[in-house]
Amino acid sequence: MEDNIRPNNKGFTLVEMIVTIVILGILLAILIPGMFRYIEKAKDKQLLVNATSTYKALQAELLLEYSKPDANLEIIVMTYERKMGWTNDDISDIPVGAKAIMVLSGNKDVDTVFEEQGFGNFINPKTGEIEAMLYIENGKYVTYTKYTGWGEAKDFNGVIIE
Fold it and tell me: What pLDDT, on the 0 to 100 scale, is given for residue 6?
C-alpha cells in the first residue's frame, strides 16, 4: 500500500523548491554582511602591516642617511614621495598611494594634525630615529610613537576602525 501513495514521483514539488529557495535566501542574508565585515577587518589589518613595513623601510633609510658625515638635516616634512631626495623606487616597501609623514622641524599644517593626535617631535635630529609617524592609506590612518607604539587605525572623522 505504501508503494501506491506517490507512484510517479520524479522530482521536487513546487512547494519544496520554494521552501528550499527561501531557506537559502535567509542563509545568504545572514552570511554576506559578515563576510564583508571580515574583508574590511582584513583590509584594516593590512593597513597596520603596510604601516609597519613603511616604518621599517624609512627607519633603515634614515639611519643610513644620518650615518653619513654630510647628512641633510634641513628636512621640514618627509613623505614617501620626497624623502631627502629618495624616490618611491628607492624605498620599495611603501605601498603605492600611501603616505608616511614625519616632521623634523615646524610645518603649520602637519603640526596641527600631529597636535590633534598628541604628538611631540618626530625625528630625533641627532640620530635620525623615528619618534613619531603618521601613516595614511586609502582614507585611513594610523599613528606611531616611540613610547606608545602603534595606535588604532582610524578614518579621517576620528572613528576607530574595529
Answer: 60
